[in-house]
Amino acid sequence: MYKPLELFIGLRYTRARRRNHFISFISLTSMLGITLGVMALITVLSVMNGFEKEVRERILDMVSHLTITKYQDSLTGWSDVVQRAKEQPHVLAAAPYVEAQGMLIHRNHVNGSLIRGVLPEMEPSVSNVGASMVEGKLSDLIPGQFGIILGRDLARILDANVGDKVTLVTPSAQVTPAGVAPRLKRFKVVGIFYVGMFEYDSSMALLHMDDARRVFRLDDGVSGVRLKVDDLFRAPQVRANLLNTELGQYWIRDWSSYHANWFRAVKIEKRMIFLLLLLIVAVAAFNIVSTLVMMVTDKESDIAILRTLGMSPPSILKVFMVQGTLIGVVGTALGIILGVSLSLNLDTVVPFIENLFGIHFLDPGVYYISELPSDLHWSDVWMIGAVSLSLGVLATLYPAWRASRTQPAEALRYE
Which structural domain range is residue 388 located in? Predict the structure, then answer.
């Protein structure tokens, strides 16, 4: 009459008002545990993805998607390299640059700095530094006028403002009648940028490329060419394609090789947090074992009657698998709904909690990223859901098998 019979009885056991309320409490606890575990997994991984995306974007404000350089000497004929690189698929733009170490001096303040020479008309096509200007603009770098743009924290270290003069000391020296002396050049501060990465804001300064070549004696050469691609995750593939062309004679690196240790650390940290939070789901899922074991003990007489009426052991096994799996399915579904909702609305939920309790999770005076970013990946959601459901199904196997082994005569002996 009811087909499939196992599904009908399993759902009936789930809906029925149980005599043992403790079993109902354990079932509810298991379901809530799975819900909280799945919700926590989705939310935490979304926050970690958000932090990774935020830091990656800030790094890429100063580091290009791909870089073409020579192994030792400066790169000559950069215009030809730019043209050939832009002919490759997925390459949107290319721009030359000069990069070297130097020391900046202002009054009594000294700081080692990374000096980068750029072309103001081409640089915005490969980086976002032009959009990160706090004072001045990139076009204020005019060749021959020896202007310089400082990172915000570097300007604070040097106590320099727009309009001040700073002295650049280069690593190369010059021979004079008085002996060997360092090469010095005065620059006027024409702008200040802020990208939100202390590593760059505290140590990088921008010059016009022609001025940088004159200061570092590169003649017509440059340090290399920077490329921007249409999808930053395609950068390794574009690099492999470039190595198979005439540009393969150069040293080509993609953005993932810069700060490679940081990206590896984030990946390892995400895996470890996933495994640790998965234990919450595992504990809740295996509470289903105790729930079903007690249920089997409570329903021994019912099982015996069903066996007497002709139900086979595999059918009994399916009945209790249906009941346990339903707990896992409902818990996982609720966890996914709550986790996705929280991840998508984290930018409003967190400020509400902060205002309610008068706290601030990320102090802007300490952290450069003062808000909890969230980047929901649906691949993470489906993986978490699949793992949670798998644990729920595995937890039902032993109690369901034990129920299928019930002997009618033994179970009804004292009835």
Answer: 5-57+262-411
